[in-house]
Specification:
With about 240 residues, this protein is α+β, with helices and mostly antiparallel strands. It has one domain: Pnp Oxidase, Chain A, CATH 2.30.110. The protein has a six-stranded antiparallel barrel. The relative contact order is 0.20.
Amino acid sequence: MSPPADGAAFTPTARSQVRRRPQRARYDEAAVYKVLDAGIMAHVGYVIDGQPFVTPTAYWREGRKLYWHGAAASRMLATVADGAPACVTVSFLDGFIVGRSGIMHSLNYRSVMAFGRARLVDDPAEKRAAMASFIDRLYAGRALKLRPTTDTELRQIALVEMEIEEASAKVRDSGVGDLPADEGWPAWCGVFPVETRIGAALPQPGMGTGGAPTPDLAPYREGARLDDTLATAAKAYGLPVST
């Protein structure tokens, strides 16, 4: 997670330009990275023999590059690593908007669509370093505490890197809209905020050291928002945090 260059932005084309509610769209790196860095799960869209597929996966970002991994036999990874165009989507549900007429019901949300072509990271040293960075991005300093990954285990993993060629962010963060016909109608209206938060830690019985989580896991405190937790973990690892 590196900071965006001042004023840097993605140049939208027909595939990335937001057409519906374009006033909610942003193409600057700061807005795109703010959404990407708040999440950990993405959906990767791609096509095999004319059939579209969308696969959920964990991801992480370094500058304009996105990384994700899976089993070496993964059809999705084999396809995108071969240079097929890919679309990576990250989205958050932030609230239910309840209006006084059906058409004024909506959602608050944050989302990003990122486009590019991925490459397979096949150099063992590069792959090992990237996977350690993924662990440390979530749990600062934890990679050094873990049993080292064996060469056999590393060969079971496929890792891809995608430089973001184009990206657009789209955000709705507002209250209830109204129509003239709604005036005076006595239905309740308002917003139900939605958040993802960390639950209480559940140590695995009979495994590990037991007791309270170690300091590398401190950001994962009960009740913390997920996006705040990821930002705290990134900061502890020494990464700049998108705000």
